[in-house]
Amino acid sequence: MTDDEPVEIRAAGGVAWRPGARGVEVCLVHRPRYGDWSLPKGKLESGEHPLLAAVREVAEETDVRAVPQVRLSTVHYRSEGRAKAVDYWSMRAAANGGFQPDTEVDEVRWLPVDDAVRLVSYPHDAEVLGAFAALPQVTAVVALVRHGHAGKRATWSGPDTGRPLDATGWAQAHALAELVALVRPVRLLSASARRCVQTLDPAAALLDLPIEVVGDLDEPKPGQQQEECALAVAACLAELAGAGAPVAVCSQGKVIPGALERLTGRADDFTTPKGGGWLLAFSGHRLVAADRL
């Protein structure tokens, strides 16, 4: 992009799916302005997280309330002379309020993936559908986050487990609550450090759920090995996913990367900044996708 070229348009959308009589069905929309069939998507609002935008746009265009599962590809193309990038996620349809046609979308269709690939008007939509079709069956989603900023360990005079979030940390906790809520968790679990519990406080208030403190999510205590704690966190996440229901978990920076290495079976950069996190998709106890939030 040259200096005088307009800023790239950012958009997000999803492959919303549901079980159907012939297997999985996905949702397409017809836009009368363009006379096309496409995946539901739309532009990000100012300062909006792409995942929030994706779920919002799917709901606005199809009236489907969907739970995000796996990040798919980012599509790049030009729209009305400007560069455009669209991030897509696979999403399980959780509720449908009843579609009403309007000037933006006048028809919605649920189709088997092969039929949807034949109907879409653009090759990039077909490619996104192909990536969706290649995914293993996702049975549970875990939102895994690291606690927010909590000042400096060296300037805190009490026990480290009692160190609270600072103003930046609380802002991060409130931003994370919106993302955590997207997966519709039935449980909120936290390491025992105060800053971890506080990081889930806004999500607990938003979702009206208690926070369960789980020692197996803690970073190493004096005399403990980091490897031991990482294994405990990995086992805890796999066990939670095996129950088949969405959950949200807050842990600590010294154990999250090691736990993800063990769950993915690869040595990768799983460093997680404070106030950051992951969308983890499982098939049974097996992790099939780990996408940064």
UniProtKB/TrEMBL annotation:
Give residue ranges for domain Nudix hydrolase. Answer: 7-133
Q: Hydrolase among the record's keywords?
A: yes
**CDD domains, from UniProt?**
HP_PGM_like, NUDIX_Ap6A_hydrolase
Q: Does the keyword Phosphoprotein apply?
A: no
User: What PANTHER family has UniProt attached to this entry?
Assistant: BIS(5'-NUCLEOSYL)-TETRAPHOSPHATASE [ASYMMETRICAL] (PTHR21340:SF0), DIADENOSINE 5,5-P1,P4-TETRAPHOSPHATE PYROPHOSPHOHYDROLASE MUTT (PTHR21340)
Which Pfam families does the entry mention? His_Phos_1, NUDIX
User: What protein name is recorded for this chain?
Assistant: NUDIX hydrolase
BP GO terms, sorted = AMP biosynthetic process; ATP biosynthetic process
Q: Which organism is it from?
A: Micromonospora globispora
- GO: which molecular function terms? bis(5'-nucleosyl)-tetraphosphatase (asymmetrical) activity
Q: Which UniProt keywords apply?
A: Hydrolase
